[in-house]
Amino acid sequence: MFSRAYRAAITLPPVLWVAVFLLAPYALLLCYSFWSVSPSQTIVHSWTLDNYRELFRVNVYLQTLFRSMWIAGRVMLFSLLLGYPLAYYLSFHANAKKDLFYQLVIIPLWVSYLVRAYAWKTILGSDGVLNTLLQYVHVTKHPLEFLLYSPFAVVLTLTHIYTPFAFLPIYASLEHIPRNLVEASHDLGASPLQTFWRVIFPLSIPGVLAGATFAFVLSLGDFLAPLLLGGPSGIMISNIVVSLFGAAYNWPLGAAISLCMLLLVLALLLLSEKLEKKWSFR
Amino acid sequence: MSNVRSKSRWLPWHAIIVFAFLYLPIVTLIVYSFNASGVGGFPPRNLTLDWYRMLFADDAIWESVANSLIVAVAAMAISLTFGIPAALALDRSNFPGKALFRRLVLLPLILPGIITGLSLLMLFREADVKLSLVTIVIGHGTALISVATTEVFAGLQKLDRAQEEASLDLGANYWQTFWRITIPNLRLSIIGAALLIFTLSMDEIAVSFFLIGRDNTLPLEIWGRLRRGITPEINAISSIIFVFSLIAIVSWYRLRMGSEGQSEIVTEVVGTA
C-alpha cells in the first residue's frame, strides 16, 4: 500500500538523526575509553588499554561500582516491596477509587526529581524537619546525624523517586490478568493465598521484572542524589565519572567507567527481556 | 471475588503508608515555602509570603525559567519531527538495521542520563561545537524521540488503515493523506507525547548537566543554588511549578480518558528496549 518514496520519507530523517546524535555519541564513548589524555591536558587519539588497566588496578573504582549496585539493589527491593502490594490493592480491591489512586501514584512523578531530592534534604538535615520534630515531641535530645549524608539518605530518596516506576509496570501486568482465571481458581476451591501465589503472582512476573529493571538501572547511574544527600560514604560510580569529566579532567578514564556501566545496564536489560519472555503468558 | 477481599485488611494500611511516603516531601516542600524562619524547624511558624516576594524579584530564576521553556518547546519540536516518522517507519517500513534502530531510539529513556549526556558532550567536543542552550535542545530532543515514537506507535496499532487507503484511492497524494488523515487520527497520541516531552524536558537535569553553556535551565539554576545552601525560595518556585504540573496532568487525563495510561509507556519501553 505504501510506495517506496513514502517509506523512504518516513525512514530516512529519523534514522539519520538517530545515527548522528545517538549512535555516533555512543560509538565515541567506546573510542574515548581507548584514548588517553596527555600531560598538557589534550586528548590523545591513539589506542591504548591503559584506562581499563587503571580501572582494575585502582580498587576505588570497582569498590564504588559494587557500592552503587548495593545501593541500587536496595532501592529496587524497597520499591518492589512498596509498589507491588499497592499495585495489587489498586488492581483487585480499590474498586471505584482505582482511577483516583492511580493518579495519586502518578502525580509525584510530575514533581521535579531534583526538587524531591531537595525536599528530603530539608526533612533529614540535622536542623531539618524530622530532627526538630523529634526534639519537639521529646523523643530525642540531640539531632540524629546519620539521617543525612549517608547511604541511608540516598536509598530513601531514590526509593521515593523510583517506587512509582516500579509500581506502573506491575499495575499494568496485574490489570491484564484475565479475571476469569482468578474466579476459576476460587471456584475450584483454592484459598485466596493459594490463588495469589499460584495464579496472580506468576502472571505478574513480567511487570515485576520491568519495574525492578527500571528501579535498579536508573538508580545505579544516579549522581545527583548522592551529591546532595550521600556525603562521602554515599558516593556512587557516576560521581566518579562526573569528577573525571570535571576537575580531574580524565575523560578517557571516565569514558571507560561509563562504558562498563553501559555494558552492565545492557546486559541487565537483555536478561530482563529474556526472563520476561519466559514468564509471559501471551 | 468477595472472598479475596476478606483476608486483605493490611493492604489498605500499606497503601496509606506508601501514599504518606510519596507525599510527605511534597507537602513539606509546600508548607515550608510559607515558613518565615526558613526551611528547617518544626513546627512551621509565622506564615509569610516573603519567599514568594523574593522569588518574584529574582531575575536569575525567571531567566532560567524562560530558558527552560524555550528548551522544552524546541526539544518537543525535534522529538515530534523525528519521533512521528520513526513510529511510522517502525510500523510500515522495512529497512536494514530496523531492530537496532528500534532499540537505539528507546535507549536514552532507560539508560542513566549521565551516559547519554556525556556521550553527546564528546560528540560536541570532537565536532568543535560550543556548548549552549542549542546543545541542550539537541540532547533533550534526541533523548525524548523515544517518548514520541512509543506513544505514536501505540496509537498506530489502533489506527484503521482503511481510511488512509481510501484517501489514496480517491486521488490524494501521500503528503495530503499524511496531513489530513494520518496526523488527525493520531491527534491524541501526539498531544499526549508533546505534553510528556515538555514536562520531562522541563525537569531534565542529567543530560543538561553535561551540555550546559553559559545560560542555565531552571533545574540547573536550582542545582547551583542548592550547592551554595538552601533557601525557601526554592520551595516557592517548586510549589508554583507543582501547581502548573497539576493543571497539565488534569488536562492530560481529560484528553486520554478511556485510552491507555502512562503505565503502558513504561512497560513498552522496558519490553522493547
Topology of this protein?
The complex is a heterodimer of chains A (282) and B (273).
Chain A: H1 4-32, E1 36-37, E2 43-44, H2 50-57, H3 59-92, H4 98-106, H5 113-124, H6 129-136, H7 151-175, H8 179-187, H9 192-220, H10 224-230, H11 237-245, H12 251-279
Antiparallel strand pairs in A: 1-2
Helix pairs in contact in A: 2-12, 3-7, 3-9, 5-7, 5-10, 7-9, 7-10, 8-9, 9-12, 11-12
Chain B: H1 2-6, H2 10-32, H3 50-56, H4 59-92, H5 98-110, H6 113-126, H7 133-143, H8 145-157, H9 161-169, H10 174-185, H11 187-203, H12 206-211, H13 218-228, H14 232-256, H15 262-272
User: Which structural category fits the helices and strands of chain B?
Assistant: mainly alpha
CATH superfamily membership of chain B: MetI-like
Largest sheet of chain A: 2 strands, antiparallel
Quick one: CATH class of chain A? Mainly Alpha
CATH topology of chain B: MetI-like fold
Q: Number of folding domains of chain A?
A: 1
Name the strands of the widest sheet of chain A in spatial order.
Answer: 1-2
Structural class of the secondary structure composition of chain A? Answer: mainly alpha
Q: Gap between N and C termini of chain B, in Å?
A: 36 Å
E-strand count of chain B: 0
Shape designation of chain A = globular
The percent range for helix content of chain B is over 70%
- Low-confidence spans of chain B: pLDDT under 50, at least 5 residues? 1-6, 267-273
Domain module tally of chain B:
1
The CATH architecture of chain B would be Orthogonal Bundle
Which whole number gives the mean pLDDT of chain A? Answer: 90
Residue fraction in strands of chain B: under 5%
Q: Main β-sheet of chain B, in a few words?
A: none
N-to-C series of helices and strands of chain A = HEEHHHHHHHHHHH
Whole-number mean pLDDT of chain B: 85
Largest interface: A-B, 107 and 96 residues
